[in-house]
Amino acid sequence: MVFQDYALFPWRTVIKNVTYGLEEQNMSKEERRSTAQRFIDMMGLSGSEDKYPKELSGGMKQRVALARTLAYDPEILLMDEPFGALDQPLRESLQDHLLDIWREVEKTVIFITHDVEEAVYLSEKVMVMTRHPGTEKETLAIDIDRTRDREAIVTSDEFTSHRNEVWQLLHEETRNQR
């Protein structure tokens, strides 16, 4: 699971944060370090292995948290508003990075967000939830050509149509709760 607040151990270095989930697995210390290094490299954090969380930017902390989760090799990756506290340029950069990683590791990702554009940009399906109680209102298939760059995707008619469809469902839900 990847949280909005990173959930890193402040007394552990980057490499030790990433190996944390592997410590209870039947792996040698060298295997744990090698696995961790693979995901540290994948996250673009090479050279930061011996740094502590307080020495990292918010984006770097989030990438460490993602590396730690991926190193554990979960069947499903649950991400609870992981980019919510980041500024827009960094947020978009990490969204693009997440899509690249998703293509490489081929894992199911459940991504929780309140940002409609982020949901449409990152997803093959968007589940719109009701307010109270939080149940499924509707699940939409998002069919977007992701072989293009970000600008081409977010300005496409298909993206706009999906975004508007999600907004319409959210507005309906808001009206129903009054």
From TrEMBL:
GO molecular function, one term: ATP hydrolysis activity
Pfam families: ABC_tran (PF00005)
UniProt keyword annotations, A-Z: Transport
Protein name listed in UniProt: ABC transporter domain-containing protein
Residue ranges of domain ABC transporter in the record: 1-83
